[in-house]
């Protein structure tokens, strides 16, 4: 499945990437799976996306839980807790 | 309902006038304006923030704000709601956000205005980066924001 990735704020800076199109393996079916799969890239990916780090996820512009299932072409975003207002 | 995400400043007086004239049935308009402070978050007591950069998630931001306003509309009878949130480079004393709520009576206006701000603080994808003499740093989310939200749940 092909999906769009987006990264914001401190996560974007730590990874050095703002967006990316990736083809994920069949074993990656949820937003949480994407996080674990990206962690396996090692280096800043493993550190920034590690379990336990305060991280928010969105799928197709809606803040979401790790169990949310991916759909073909969906946009998955990773970012720190928000600080607007 | 109007939601605007923009780099430009806004004129509180003009926005309230527009709401007032558009809704003769509304006897109350409550407004909240969020402003850039010069006090940095590390709590040194020093007033050292020279600039604030606000990043957001275009596409999601507008949708998140609309969802928050719709939740408020489901909870109270609101004549109208206006939310303006800025992004980009701001300086101390600059306006960041405006929430204005027009209702028949003041109770609902105060409550809905606070509700929208409390949700915005935890659910709208904005991130602040402070510039200080020691460099730049991302502002961290506060636990008190989650506490503020909990009272509505």
Summarize the structure.
Chain A is an alpha+beta fold.
Features:
heterodimer; A: 85 residues; alpha+beta; five-stranded mixed sheet; globular; B: 153 residues; Aldehyde Oxidoreductase, domain 3; four-stranded mixed sheet; four-stranded antiparallel sheet; 8 strands
Description of the structure:
The complex is a heterodimer of chains A (85) and B (153). Chain A is α+β, with helices and mostly antiparallel strands. Chain A is built from 3 helices and 5 strands. Chain A has a 5-stranded mixed sheet with strand order 2-1-5-3-4. The model of chain A has no long low-confidence stretch (mean pLDDT 97). Chain B is of the alpha+beta class and 153 residues long. Chain B has one domain: Molybdopterin biosynthesis MoaE subunit (Aldehyde Oxidoreductase, domain 3, Alpha-Beta Complex), CATH 3.90.1170.40. Helices cover 35% and strands 32% of the residues of chain B. Chain B contains 4 helices and 8 strands, in the order βαββαβββαββα. In chain B, the strands form 2 sheets. In chain B, strands 1-4-6-2 form a 4-stranded mixed sheet, with helices on both faces. A 4-stranded antiparallel sheet of chain B has the order 5-3-7-8, with no helix packed on it. In chain B, a hairpin with a 2-residue loop joins β7 and β8. Chain B is globular. The two termini of chain B are 23 Å apart. Chains A and B meet through loops of A and β3, α2, α3 and β7 of B.
